[in-house]
Design a protein that fits this description.
Shape: elongated
Helix content: 40-55%
Number of helices: 6
Strand content: 15-25%
Number of strands: 5
Radius of gyration: 50 Å
Structural class: alpha+beta
Order of helices and strands: HHHHHHEEEEE
């Protein structure tokens, strides 16, 4: 019985001695876990920072590439004073003499349709005198018209005489009076302009109505 108690006492002492060792070992393991966790945290932060930096660099690179002037832009900037070229930059110059003459007839009737009788009157040669009417008489001649539409035929050949050009333009004009009566006129206009001779003005070198041969269809 005494031997058994002695053995138990010795075992108890051995366990007491092992307890501090196990505690120390536990503390070491626990400290190692904390150290390992801290290192993983640091590594994770570094990886995140590297990813953010890479994204920022990529964005800057794309922005710089987008803002980098192309060869075409450099060419445009190298001569900023040069105007853009356009085939319609000066439509009058690009038109033939026949087209300009036809356009005058369209402009003439457009002015009448919107009741701009002054512009229509000045379409006649000599500031309107070629119409053989005063402006008031010319304006009164359209007082009863509520609508007017023109159809222009094929222009005639250009003819030159005494430093001027002439051309004949066939037309058919349909109008409606204020009481609803339709009217149709048929005939032609003779247009005149001065040749490009020294001393001529831009106004003289534009087409004007020189005379007319228009009659009401019965």
């Amino acid at each position: 019985m005494a031997v058994t108690n002695k053995f138990k006492y010795a075992e108890f002492i051995r366990l007491l001695v092992q307890i501090p060792q196990e505690i120390a070992l536990f503390n070491i393991n626990f400290s190692f876990c904390i150290w390992l966790k801290q290192r993983y945290t640091v590594i994770g932060v570094l990886l995140l920072a590297m990813s953010i930096t890479a994204c920022n660099n990529s964005a800057r690179s794309q922005l710089a590439s987008g803002n980098r002037p192309t060869l075409a832009n450099l060419s445009d900037r190298s001569n900023p004073s040069s105007p853009p070229t356009s085939s319609t930059q000066n439509p009058v110059k690009n038109q033939s003499q026949e087209q300009q003459a036809v356009q005058l007839i369209h402009d003439y009737y457009d002015a009448i349709a919107r009741q701009d009788y002054k512009q229509a009157y000045l379409a006649w040669d000599g500031d309107g005198s070629a119409s053989k009417q005063s402006f008031e008489e010319f304006q009164q001649g359209f007082a009863n018209i509520v609508s007017i539409v023109e159809e222009v035929g094929k222009p005639g050949s250009l003819e030159g005489a005494a430093g001027s050009l002439y051309i004949e333009i066939p037309v058919t004009v349909t109008s409606v009076t204020s009481n609803g009566t339709p009217q149709r006129f048929r005939g032609s206009y003779k247009l005149r302009r001065v040749n490009n001779v020294p001393g001529s003005t831009p106004k003289q070198r534009r087409w004007h109505i020189y005379s007319d041969n228009i009659s009401l269809e019965q």
